[in-house]
């Protein structure tokens, strides 16, 4: 009887543990497959790639403008690809951009330009105008001359999107564009300097990215010093302390301290030696 009960208990235990082991949540995702809706959507970083500044778009007043008109001497450009009727992600992106620009000590239009381009060719300049006014009101600084909200035709949009590695597609089921959220930092000459992923942005990261893109032409000595001490970490999407430069800086200050002690000693030593020789 005891053997029979033990046998039943053993079989039940085996069935129970087998059922637990047979359910492995990782099995459902071990292929790491991208959902079908996201196929062909994303960002392929093309750091150093030159934008075609001869592309033409319409600004928020309906005027046809060249992309080159926003690239001025020594001024980097912060670029966003969005669409103005987007109900979710683009709003989060533009909100995040505006929030970090409000925290930044620099002013849009003075140290850098901000350009938003709609990748929906059906959108018109009146939408861009309304969007710009809404974010200028939120920003509440300056005269708004450095803010540019553009629309364009499919050919120009595709060329710009391809040059920054931005892939997106239309979802007919919910009638929305599927896309990523990225801000691009562009040099004054039109080359891609930095990708800032996400919908929220760090003030220091943005400032150092703009400073780096300008090749040190904007900002003050403190900003230059900060850039020397920090290096961009793509994995963390932010700037982190650069140990090598910190070590160089430490070595420099060590030499200064040694010089401060040794130079007066050498001067006194030489003066004493001269006095001894004269005696």
Give a verbal description of the structure.
The protein has 279 residues and is of the alpha+beta class. It folds into 2 domains: 37-225, 3-Layer(aba) Sandwich (Glutaredoxin), CATH 3.40.30; 240-270. 42% of the residues lie in helices and 18% in strands. The chain is built from 7 helices and 13 strands. The chain has helices spanning 2-22, 89-103, 125-139, 154-164, 203-213, 221-229, 243-278; strands spanning 42-43, 56-58, 64-66, 77-82, 113-118, 147-150, 166-167, 169-171, 176-178, 182-186, 192-197, 230-233, 238-241. The protein has a 5-stranded mixed sheet with strand order 6-5-4-10-11, with helices on both faces. A two-stranded antiparallel sheet has the order 1-7. It has a two-stranded antiparallel ribbon with strand order 2-3. Strand 12 (230-233) and strand 13 (238-241) form a beta hairpin. Helix 5 (203-213) packs across helix 6. Disulfide bonds join 86-90. One of its GO terms (molecular function) is metal ion binding. Keywords: Copper, Disulfide bond, Membrane, Metal-binding, Transmembrane, Transmembrane helix.
Supply the CATH architecture of the largest domain: 3-Layer(aba) Sandwich
Report the order of strands and helices: HEEEEHEHEHEEEEEHHEEH
Question: Class by helix and strand content?
Answer: alpha+beta
**Helical residue percent?**
40-55%
Strand runs, count: 13
Any idea what the shape is?
elongated
Please tell me how large the radius of gyration is.
29 Å
CATH topology name of the largest domain, in short, is: Glutaredoxin
Spatial strand order of the main sheet: 6-5-4-10-11
Major sheet description: 5 strands, mixed
CATH H level, superfamily name of the largest domain: Glutaredoxin
Q: What proportion of the residues form beta strands (DSSP E)?
A: 15-25%
CA-to-CA gap between the ends?
A: 118 Å
**CATH C-level name of the largest domain:** Alpha Beta
Unreliable runs: 1-30, 242-249
Tally of separate domains: 2
Q: Enumerate how many helices there are, as a single number.
A: 7
Give the rounded overall mean pLDDT.
Answer: 80
GO molecular function, one term: metal ion binding
Family: Belongs to the SCO1/2 family.
Keywords: Copper, Disulfide bond, Membrane, Metal-binding, Transmembrane, Transmembrane helix
Protein name: Photosynthetic protein synthase I
């Amino acid at each position: 009887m005891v053997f029979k009960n033990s046998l039943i208990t053993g079989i039940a235990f085996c069935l129970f543990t087998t059922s637990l082991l047979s359910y492995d949540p990782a099995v459902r995702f071990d292929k790491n497959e991208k959902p079908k809706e996201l196929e062909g959507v994303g960002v392929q970083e093309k750091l150093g790639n030159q934008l075609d500044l001869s592309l033409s778009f319409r600004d928020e007043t309906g005027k046809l403008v060249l992309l080159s008109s926003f690239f001025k001497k020594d001024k980097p450009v912060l670029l966003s690809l969005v669409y103005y009727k987007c109900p979710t992600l683009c709003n989060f992106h533009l909100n995040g951009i505006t929030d970090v620009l409000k925290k930044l000590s620099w002013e849009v239009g003075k140290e850098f330009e901000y350009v938003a381009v709609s990748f929906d060719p059906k959108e018109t300049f009146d939408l861009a105008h309304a969007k710009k006014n809404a974010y200028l009101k939120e920003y509440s600084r300056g005269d708004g001359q450095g803010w540019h909200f553009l629309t364009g035709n499919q050919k120009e949009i595709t060329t710009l999107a391809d040059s920054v590695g931005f892939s997106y597609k239309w979802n007919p089921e919910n009638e929305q564009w599927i896309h990523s959220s990225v801000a691009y930092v562009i040099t004054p000459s039109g080359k891609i300097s930095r990708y800032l992923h996400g919908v929220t942005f760090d003030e220091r990261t943005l400032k150092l990215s703009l400073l780096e893109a300008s090749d040190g032409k904007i900002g003050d000595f403190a900003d230059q010093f900060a850039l020397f001490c920090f290096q961009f970490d793509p994995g963390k999407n932010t700037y982190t302390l650069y140990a090598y430069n910190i070590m160089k800086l430490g070595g420099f200050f060590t030499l200064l301290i040694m010089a401060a002690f040794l130079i007066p000693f050498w001067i006194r030593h030489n003066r004493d030696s001269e006095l001894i020789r004269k005696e």
